[in-house]
Amino acid sequence: MTDHRHRGWSQPPPAPPPTARRSRFPRWRPLTWVILAFNLLMLLWLVVGLNAASDEGESCTDQLCQDANDVGTAIGAGIVLFIWAAGAVILGVIWLVTNRSLQQGPPQRPPQRW
User: Fold this and answer.
1) pLDDT tens digits for range 56-70
2) Maximal C-alpha separation, the chain
3) By the 8 A CB rule, do 49 and 77 touch?
4) Is 114 a residue whose pLDDT tops 60?
5) pTM of the full predicted structure?
6) Averaged confidence pLDDT in the chain
7) What is the pLDDT of residues 22-69, one digit of tens each?
8) Per-residue exposure over 60-82, b if at least 16 CB sit within 10 Å of its own CB, e if not
9) pLDDT at position 110, please?
10) What sign does the CA torsion over 23, 27, 30, 31 have?
C-alpha cells in the first residue's frame, strides 16, 4: 500500500465519483416517450391492418375479388403511412421547439418602460 505522502502529495487524490445506478429505462423527456409510443402504435396499426387484409383476401375465389382486395389493402396502407409520416413530422417539430437545452440563457423579460 502506498501512502499519499509517500508519493509527494499534500492531500490524498480525490476519490472517483460514485457510479450512478443505471435504470432500466433511459431518462428522456416525456415528449420523447410520446413520440416512441406513437411510432410503435402506428407500426402495430400497419401490421394488424395488413394482416387483416391478407386474411380477407383468402375468401376471394375469383381474380377480380383478389385484385379489389389488393387495391384496398394498398390504399389503406398508404393512408396509415401518410398519417404516420404527418404525425411524426408534427411531433418532431414540437419536440425540437420545446427543447430546453437549445435555449440560450434565462428567458428575456421585456423592458419596463418603452
Assistant:
1) 777 788 889 888 888
2) 92
3) yes
4) yes
5) 0.63
6) 82
7) 667 777 788 999 999 999 999 999 999 999 887 777 778 888 988 888
8) eeeeeeeeebeeebeeeeeebee
9) 72
10) negative
Vertex 88: Cα angle to 84 and 89 (nearest 5): 120
- Residue 47, C-alpha cell as written in the block: 401490421
**103-110 mean pLDDT:** 66
**DSSP assignment of 6-54:** TTT-SSPPPPPPPPPPPPSS----HHHHHHHHHHHHHHHHHHHHHHHHH
Burial 94-112 (b: 16+ CB within 10 A, else e): eeeeeeeeeeeeeeeeeee
Nearest to 83 by CA among 36, 112, 43: 43
